[in-house]
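Recap slide: Trk system potassium uptake protein TrkA, sequence and predicted structure.
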Amino acid sequence: MKRKVIVIGLGKFGSNLAKTLAAEGVEVLGIDKNEKLVEDISPDISEALVADATRKEVLKSIGVEEADQVVVAMSNLSASVLIVLYLRELKARFILAKANDEDHARILRLLGADRVVIPEQDAALREARTLITPNMVDFLPLLPDFLIAKLDAPDEFIGHSLKELDLRRRYHVYILAIRKKHSTKLIVLPPAEHIIEKDEELFVLGKKEYLSKLLAQSE
């Protein structure tokens, strides 16, 4: 069966990647909001669509879970973060994402990207960097109203599963990852059955107002 790759973002990086894959016989679906970019690449790939991939319903409609790989080739941090988050929720098989720098790369990996590339940086240095470094900041700004926060597991969470805590409904936040204190091993997008333990740290994505309510629980 012919391999299928979806390329989201048809700028210089995305378009070159899409054309190269298509030339090698891969079925390529390209997506971008820019009509001119879509028009320019249409003759060179299997299909090109004008669409806003930051909308979850758009990603769902194109069947991202059926593609062998999905490439997020967008430089805009806000857009790439949302797209990777939605792709993981929609169970995309493999996510390759483009990052602008190491901070951007850490966020994308934390959200579940299987591979992150930084075109402007030497490949060897890029691969040598770890997913999370010991001096990671407690708060990392994303969008104007969104943050990633690192906090100790509140006492009321300990001994309960993520399903029981139902943090999305209660606080409107996403648990991106969990790790033991002083450990480099990270559980990315932990399952609903995960039981929170006393010595765990939570990496949480949400709006400032909702994170403030959650953070108050850990004080």
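The domain at 139-217 is CATH 3.30.70.1450 (Alpha-Beta Plaits).
Residues 118 and 124 are 11 Å apart (CA to CA).
(End of recap.)
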